[in-house]
Amino acid sequence: MLNDTFLTPAQIVAELDKYIIGQHEAKRHVAIALRNRWRRLHAPLDMQAEIVPNNILMIGATGVGKTEIARRLAHLADAPFVKVEASKFTEVGYVGRDVESMVRDLAEQSVNRVKARRQEAVKAQAAEAVEEVILDALIPPISQPAGIKTGVGFGSGGGDGTPTSDAELNERTRERFRQKIRNGELEDRKIEIQVAQGAPSIGIMGAPGMDESAMSGLQDMLGNMMPKKTRKRKVTVAEARRLLLDEEAGKLIDMDEVKDEAIRQCENAGIIFIDEIDKVASSGGKSGGSGPDVSRQGVQRDLLPIVEGSAVNTKYGIVNTDHILFIAAGAFHVSKPSDLIPELQGRFPIRVELQSLTKDDFYHILKEPRNALTKQYEALLQAEAVELTFDDEALLRLAEIAFEVNAEVENIGARRLHTVMSRLLNDILYDVPDKIGPNAHIQITAALVDERLSSMVKNRDLSQYIL
Ligand SMILES: Nc1ncnc2c1ncn2[C@@H]1O[C@H](COP(=O)(O)OP(=O)(O)OP(=O)(O)O)[C@@H](O)[C@H]1O
Ligand SMILES: [Mg+2]
Predict the structure, then answer these.
(1) Which position among 159, 176, 234, 240 has the lowest Cβ density within 10 Å, counted as fewest Cβ atoms?
(2) How many CB atoms within 10 Å of residue 56?
(3) Residue 438 has what DSSP assignment?
(4) Is residue 40 part of a domain?
């Protein structure tokens, strides 16, 4: 994290461009916010405390890439990152996830990241330890009674190459097997090893008024009080290596250090993406009501201190949220950003509107992203040795149809491309491999697209159900 190879804003945008078409404003803003994380940590210490992140609110119709940007950002960020849905939360005192759980999730994520990196660093050392364990299982070492020196004085021959004692014989056999293990000759040999059993899970019924963090804390505490159980298992050498590596690597790292580092990263580099924030905005704008609106406002109130900066108790320690970056996103179909309580609006100073996608965008979305739908279907059929190709005209026509259906039936953005594509290709996907054999080549032409889809576009009532 946060080293000198950290991506520049232009590089971040270029990475996002590989998956998301258009939405340049949004990409620029998240790129700047991400780079600012790095910049802050390289600023003088007294300034670091002052620089607070500019939280971002992304606004855009459904299916235009909000969640997709978050997903790709998560890969790029190289920082603790969680994505949560605001609609999952309920306000304090109600049954459900309390808002602070997003910070606990971030801490958890951060610990896992740091732990994985440390384990990676001690992998070679752990592998040596594992080899020893496997060897012990194959050829148990002779336990030498204290005080008795083997080999010297007790030996019968000595010097002529024949074993001089059981211990020496044992040692030689072990060396021979060590070589065999290293040569991969014993991968399928069965051995018996002790493996740690997952921590016993203790169910606790939530008592009223007990929050989630207290619950998981209690659960952990009780779990730790139980003796660590191990279990004998008969497995192949290859499997044993896989099972033991994590365990041995775990023994080599200092968990307290991991926790400290994880909390530090969580606080300084952490990013929380709050999706579907519009779902907790009150639609009517009428105040003093009751029912869902009140509870939504409650969630917003609970969000305030976290976004503003507060200390949250996690099982790894206290996490201060002052410098965590929050990015929120919502379609705001029914409600408007101004329906959020003013204090919360204020916590998201940067507003970005995502553009509605055009016919042209659809064409590019079908064709260009790394995970473009056309590429996905090509790969699916490739598995059957069937080659699928799309004419450019066909893609233009598909884009056009998707756009028309969006305009006439319901605008679901780029998601429409999924329904249109599956409608187009379903028969083919069904007939391969039974009717369309391997090595076939299927070329999707504009004419074929029209044949399969245009009747649907003309018949609106029908297309409501089918597309
Ligand atoms: N600009 C885009 N470029 C490439 N693919 C896109 C774009 N916008 C949307 N998609 C595709 O459409 C699908 C839905 O997009 P996404 O999940 O980002 O929608 P959203 O904006 O979060 O909508 P909602 O408000 O309904 O959650 C994704 O599978 C994504 O691949
Ligand atoms: Mg979404």
Answers:
(1) 159
(2) 21
(3) T
(4) yes
